[in-house]
Amino acid sequence: RIQALLEEVDEVTKSERAGEPRKLKGAIRFEQVSFAYEKDRPVLHEISFSIAPGEKVALVGHTGSGKTSIISLLQGFYRPTQGSVLLDGIPLNQINIQDLRSQIGVVPQDVLLFHDTLRANVAYGRPQASDAAILKVLEAAQIGGLVQRLPQGLDTRIGGDEGLTPSAGEAQRLAMARAILIEPAIVILDEASSSLDSKEEARLQAAILSLLQGHSAIIIAHRLSTIRQCDRIIVLEAGRILEQGSPEQLLTDPNSSYSRLHRSHFSSVQADV
Is the pLDDT of residue 183 over 60? Predict the structure, then answer.
């Protein structure tokens, strides 16, 4: 197994290495994109949509609808079997892969925090960042007050017997601060609030509104309350786009897929309460 791993072909091709470094603005376009992990078993079917720089778009759909596949294609982990993914009008395979990933900030569902200082955890993607820059993003992430209360401030260690043990909500907001510190053109939030209670989710929503200003954002969420402030929602089903529009537009039609999903979601939330 070790030998097979060592023999894996480098995912970064010579042409991608040779690409000129460029600062992305965050314009995203999928043109008739189809994709399959296994031959003859497509998971995406002729997906087309655009995201303008600074626009916040939510991907909504049941498990297996294609949300994660779209995100994986955008990060260059896979290539479309058909169609094109473009950033700022440039095909993805013509962009240096290191440049691409250095300008995409990702907040995953399960946050990985290192047994290190708070400073090192936030500045993971930009280790040369000043304390002032780190404190600024922590404040925007609605977690600056925690840092001020800690006797060692940014030098506080996370984990271990004597270290700080952040709550799930604090960990998510730390991850958001980490993602924004690298000044990305694009931010991806992948089920960032799925494990939070309503109080922590409200804090995370405030952090999202504060931190995502000026950044293109794709938000994947099962909790529809998380995406109320999005500019646009794309509803997916079985690898196809069923509909897209602003939350208000989609809710206007009681027969839209999003309206039905919205009613089902909030009726179940009220039942749980």
Answer: yes
The tally of CA atoms less than 13 A away on the side-chain side of residue 164 is 25
If you count DSSP H runs as helices and E runs as strands, how many of each does the chain have, helices first? 11, 10
H-helix segments, the chain = 2-6, 14-17, 67-74, 97-102, 118-122, 131-140, 144-149, 168-181, 198-211, 247-252, 257-272
pLDDT (0 to 100) of residue 24 = 87
3-state helix, strand, coil split of the chain in percent (to 5) is 40, 25, 40
Q: Which residues pair with 189 in a beta bridge?
A: 107, 219
Query: How many angstroms separate the CA atoms of 17 and 37, rounded?
Result: 25
CB 35 within 8 A of CB 92: no
Cβ atoms of 23 and 186 within 8 Å: the answer is no
CB 238 within 8 A of CB 65: yes
Cross-strand bridge partners of residue 84:
31
pLDDT of residue 16: 52
At 267, the pLDDT band (50, 70, 90 cuts) reads: low
Instruction: Please state, in angstroms and as integers, the Cα–Cα distance from residue 54 to each residue in 24, 25, 38, 129, 214, following that order.
Output: 12, 9, 34, 23, 5
Contact 243, 255 (CB under 8 A): no
Among 51, 120, 35, residue whose Cα is nearest residue 84 = 35
CA proximity to 208, closest of 232, 185, 226, 234: 226
Model's pTM, two decimal places?
0.83
Residue 44's nearest CA partner among 76, 9, 17, 72 is 72
Sign of the alpha-carbon torsion through 105, 109, 115, 119: positive
